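Hi,

I'm pasting everything inline rather than attaching a file, because the server keeps stripping attachments. The sequence lines come first, and each chain or strand is labelled.
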Amino acid sequence: MPITFESGCFHLKTAHTSYVFELAGGKYPVHLYWGPSVRAVHDTMIRRLTRFTEETFSLHEQSLDSLPLECPVFGGSDLRPGMIHLIHSDGTHALDLVYESHEILPGKPDIPGMPSALGDGAETLIITLRDRLSNISADLLYTIWPDLDVLARRIRIRNDGGNTAFIEQAMSVSVDFEACDLDLLTLSGAWAREREPSRRPLYPGIQGVSTERGASSHQTSPFMVLLSHDTTESSGNAYGFALCYSGSFSASVNVDQFGMARASMGINPFNFRWKLTPGTVFDTPDAYLVFSDHGLGEMSRRYHTFIHRCITRGTFALASRPLLINNWEATYFDFNEEKLLSLARCAKEVGIDLFVLDDGWFGKRNTDHCSLGDWVDDLGKLPHGLRHLSDSIHELGLKFGLWVEPEMISPDSDLYRAHPDWCIHVEGRERLESRFQLVLDLTRKEVRDYIVTVITDALIRGNVDYVKWDMNRNISMWGAALPPDQQQEMGHRYILGLYDIMTRITGRFPHVLFESCAGGGGRFDLGILCLMPQTWCSDDTDAWMRCRIESSTSLLFPPSAMGAHVSAVPNHQTGRLTPLATRAAVAMCGTFGYELDLQKLPPEELESIREINKRVHEWQRILFYGDFYRLKNPYESNEAAWMSVRSDRREAIVTHVYAQAFPQQKPRLLRLAGLDPDLDYTDTETGKVYGGDELMQRGYPLSVAWNDYMAQQIHLIAI
Ligand code: DGJ
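And the predicted assembly:
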């Protein structure tokens, strides 16, 4: 039994980890241990806090303030930042959630209206706590996948009382660490510079990351790791927390007066308040916890396997993906049918599988100033319509993909002229545009139904094989079609609305590959990944910037989830010149494609592209689904390197990029990882044979980089 309850203790045991907590006095779940697996919970681990059984429990004499709690709440004797904060109908805030019952179920219950991991092979513990006076209960849900070493946590608050309450805060997870001698790693960034890692030691007080933008955002990610100070890629403890949510979130650690560290994560309580009327339930999203005692690398590989098995689903889970060409950087808005077809013909000649028509095919969209919402073919650019273009592309032997941005509306659009009230706005206040567009109010059912209808029509009309679902601005001037006492539900209701339309549209087209995008990687999270198996990593396609972005993105996400393309030089975002081979090697760390005008390339580069494409097809399964090892950190050095190893360790692909070349370099050795030390490997390029142990201990002798931004890819096959 992976989940057991003995001597008042819950033991959640996976292949390599244990998570243990007791019911102190039969009342309060108190955390005991999270780390490498222990055989059993011995008496010595249990605190036996019997004082909490006394009926005369007094706030002054017996405080929860010094205990590591599984479900800390505001309004009781724990005075630290909690997980749940409620306001009752009489305006009071007190809460005392006490154990009532528990059950252990096979699998994992779905979360109504929200995406979450599949429960194959999982087991779930549900503990019900109840506040006696208000009759409000909280279910703590713990799901473990024993063979994947993942623990999911979330809560469900139910109002079984007769009065309305307001939820001010409901975090998905809270874990108390007895000591704060840890580092905190989070990801922050900006447009075209997403997910830069930042690691610092914990200090007293609150620290962490959050977003109030209504999206998981470019600026930070719903992910954090607590690490021992000496943890590296391959050694030391790492405790990962990843939220399955696409809206405003908070991920924080509070170090208290006793030096205990409380890590919590969930929907951002700022600008959030949920009206919980009698008989209703509120569910938080899932948070996925992974422990590794072999460093960040092992933590990432556990997340990658979990994502492949339980997050991505349907036709494209564990499948190869088409090599695509996207016309955005080749043409921007300036295209017509002939231009697209000649690009497509060229793409076919060099072995590309899928042609993607990006922004500008609908309404009168010759710039980004208009037409979002009017999903009708622009007959000026496509005189025979979308279907004719799609048919012509299919006739060339290519698949056809289409860009859409369903959540948005341009003030200059027929949709806005017909429904000026359909956008997020406040009557009497200016409607603040960003990229000349407004956000549709997805809390409204008629808006969601309209989107589903028009996007479905466009996808049928275009007979599409692939969709790029974009989103290019965050919410401002918050105001939705909700009653005054529910306005602060808007952020979460927007995301529920988004999941609703995404579920309906993706469900209608199970054989279409969906890629999510938000002005690059502005909404790269596990929530959307449950619905769309890949996400455009960043609008920054510069090879060196991508070394950084892809490397830090891989902390949580596998290459199969990261959209990565080869673009033209000078790069449109940084102006940098990098060799084609380097751009391709770096894009192979993701779902591979091109974003340039192939017709402008010299014949020798087209020939190279043909070879590159053959290589991508050949290597894709290992690159996507192999075990991923980061070898050189581009945030800390002039080099980036990573490798993917087939699960039987008989084949591996290594990528190394050296940024700025220096004269008089010494030959360098790159120490590899994840190989079988007892096997010999042939380097398929040179035919040389190396021992697996030699490659991991001594290293692979790299070629000297004579120019800036040289890449080397090494393909090793076991003899
Ligand atoms: C932002 C995306 O990230 C780009 O790739 C492109 O699709 C543009 N939007 C189109 O407007």
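Residues 632-718 form a domain with the Immunoglobulin-like fold (CATH 2.60.40.1180).

If the labels don't parse on your end, tell me and I'll reformat.
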